[in-house]
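Predict the 3D structure for this chain.
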Amino acid sequence: MSAQVPETDGFTRHDCVGLARAPDCEAVNALRLETYSAAPEFRLLRPDLLAWDTRDASAIVLGGWDGTGRLVATIQCRVAGSAAHAEAQIGVSVAMAAGHFPAVVMGRAATAPGRTGRGLNSVMRWHCLMAARDAG
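Done. Predicted structure below.
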């Protein structure tokens, strides 16, 4: 992966999970493309659909950085107010009672090769849920 080390407010992030920002866009998109292109479970037909557009205010993108400041994990989170809203976001039917909404819809998660199997995706999901809880 040719991701650059991101700087946020003059400092480089190390060994942390946080909100990805516009300067991280290239690294997030590169990690997604690298991960999804190598997946043995499916063939990536529309890589353009993986791209993070930083102008999309409805999506929160989290990143996980290693000790060198390299992005090694990412996940996208959105809030769905209803089953219909969730269906529009993920493109499949959602058979859930109205009482289960609002709900957090997570997707486009990616973990760098060599970093899988360490629970990074679980950490990213936990942070996504905590951010949603804190936002009300």
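The helical segments are 25-38, 83-90, 120-135.
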